[in-house]
Amino acid sequence: MAAGRSGGGSSMALALLVLAASAASLLPAASLSVTSPYVRPPPRPDVLASLLQDDDDDGQTPQQVHISMVGPDKMRVTWITDDEAPAIVEYGTTPGQYTLSATGSTTTYSYVLYKSGNIHDAVIGPLQPNTTYYYRCSSNPKRDFSFRTPPATLPFKFVIVGDFGQTGWTESTLKHIAGADYDMLLLPGDLSYADFIQSRWDSYGRLVEPLASARPWMVTEGNHEIEKLPLVEPKPFKAYNARWRMPYDAGASPSGDNLYYSLDVAGGAVHVLMLGSYTDYDAGSAQHRWLRRDLAAVDRRRTAFVVALVHAPWYNSNRAHQGEGDAMRDAMEALLYGARVDAVFAGHVHAYERFARVYAGKEDPCAPVYVTVGDGGNREGLADKYIDPQPAISAFREASFGHGRLEVVNATHALWTWHRNDDDVQVVADQVWITSLAANPACHRSKAGKM
Fold first, then answer.
1. Which of 9, 76, 117, 435 fits a disulfide with 25 by CB distance 3.0 to 4.6 angstroms?
2. Rounded to whole angstroms, how far apart are CA atoms 343 and 337?
3. Cα dist. 84→61, 102, 117, 120, 388 in Å?
4. Of 142, 129, 179, 155, which Cα lies nearest the Cα of 65?
5. CA distances from residue 308 to 273, 313, 344 in whole angstroms, order as listed
6. Torsions phi, psi of 402, nearest 5?
7. pLDDT tens string 274-327
8. How many Å apart are CA 403 and CA 361, to the nearest integer?
9. Cβ neighbours of 282 (radius 10 Å)
10. Which residue range or ranges hold the Purple acid phosphatase N-terminal domain (predicted)?
11. Of these residues, 224, 321, 348, 350, which one is catalytic?
């Protein structure tokens, strides 16, 4: 059954808003620079205790279910069982009637003294766009799930938030996201904050399952995913790669590495780059060569928006993590600028900040908008100390937990909104229209010189 979308009246109102905003979709940062005076309460404690064990888990009951896109019309379903179970997903468009099925594979991993459950993975499809599918995993009748596929055309709605963790504030953020109508969640790193304690990956999987099983979650790694122990566990990203497999080997531009990849949504109208801040990115590296190929293949005549996600921000006026994204920026900023990437979203800094369009440290009308959204609710607390005075390129900053939403309305305009978690009530604290650089004639000069 196709899921409903906005009606004609709301579409007309939105069109009028776009017209009203088009002349000043991104005002000069000097006229917008704001450091919010809002004072955030301290972080809430972890919620791990209530998530470590399912009371009704018989060893074959699917848990930690999450989904991710694979190409334009397929979905990867990932789940875990404590005991052996078939890697089968049964699905259909009617509740309880599973007329289709797909069989995948099962893996496990060990980490010091920890042994994971059976991690199952199956790709289902082809699927119809903007349609609700009902499914179950391992043919187990105890739990039924459903998800809605993304639309094949604009408008397209993203939720973007990083540095989740598993605190009371994380629960608040997830509750606010659950109340939104969105098509896909993008997460720029730092998922579970397991930090070597592998059972925290399991509790995190249970915490996010209600959302991650219902909409595709596309993630990239942060520093808390590295989990490398010299001599004992020398291989980094062991748990992350085993549990959160992304479509790095799918699409028109496979990267060959789960730590970075790209995807197209809305029929190719939006191209999303998920970049790896904690794997090689210098010129000549595999990631750098892949990024150059990927961007060169993007046809901006049909791709209205290109957005990128990294973990460590390339621009940051917070005192926390100063300069940690600079080396990656030095290596890759010219590539993104030459391809007219519209926006770059980062995590890592536990606060919110939006910059103007920036290239090489200066405002540039043909450069990306930079946004930091490392404010999902982590247990390390907020980064509440900023550089003073606020740089002219920084438009708005606030040390609060929250999440962002990017609605690509049409081929020329996208609406970015940041929602603060204000005592469990979400409040729109920052909002701006972003105009596609592909729609700006002044930014149409050859990319060759910058790539």
1. 435
2. 10
3. 10, 17, 9, 10, 57
4. 142
5. 4, 11, 5
6. 170, -160
7. 999 999 999 999 999 999 999 999 999 999 999 999 999 999 999 999 999 999
8. 26
9. 12
10. 62-149
11. 321
Tokens encoding 130: 């903007």
Instruction: Decide: 197 and 224 in contact? Cβ < 8 Å.
Output: no
Q: CA 363, CA 342: separation in Å to the nearest integer? A: 14
On the 0-12 / 13-18 / 19+ scale of CB atoms within 10 A, 446 is: exposed
Q: Measured between alpha carbons, how far is 183 from 166 in angstroms, rounded to an integer?
A: 23
Rounded mean pLDDT, 203-223: 98
Q: What element of type H or E holds 68?
A: strand 63-70
The CA distance from 128 to 116, in Å, is 34
Which tens digits make up the pLDDT trace of 70-126? 999 999 999 999 999 999 999 999 999 999 999 999 999 999 999 999 999 999 999
Among 381, 315, 281, which residue's Cα sits nearest to residue 43? 381
Write out pLDDT tens, residues 342-370: 999 999 999 999 999 999 999 999 999 99
Q: Which helix (H) or strand (E) holds 295?
A: helix 286-296
Answer whether 260's CB lies under 8 Å from 279's CB: yes
> Is 321 assigned a catalytic role?
yes
**Whole-number Å distance between alpha carbons of 381 and 375:** 9
Per the document, the length of the chain is: 451
Q: Which residues pair with 184 in a beta bridge?
A: 158
Residue in the block written with tokens 């989990």: 227
Q: What are 32-84's pLDDT values in tens digits?
A: 588 877 665 666 677 754 555 555 568 999 999 999 999 999 999 999 999 99
Q: How many CB atoms lie within 10 A of CB 10?
A: 10
Element (H, E) at 433: strand 425-435
Give tens-digit pLDDT for 11-25. 434 444 444 444 334
Which pLDDT score is estimated for 93?
98
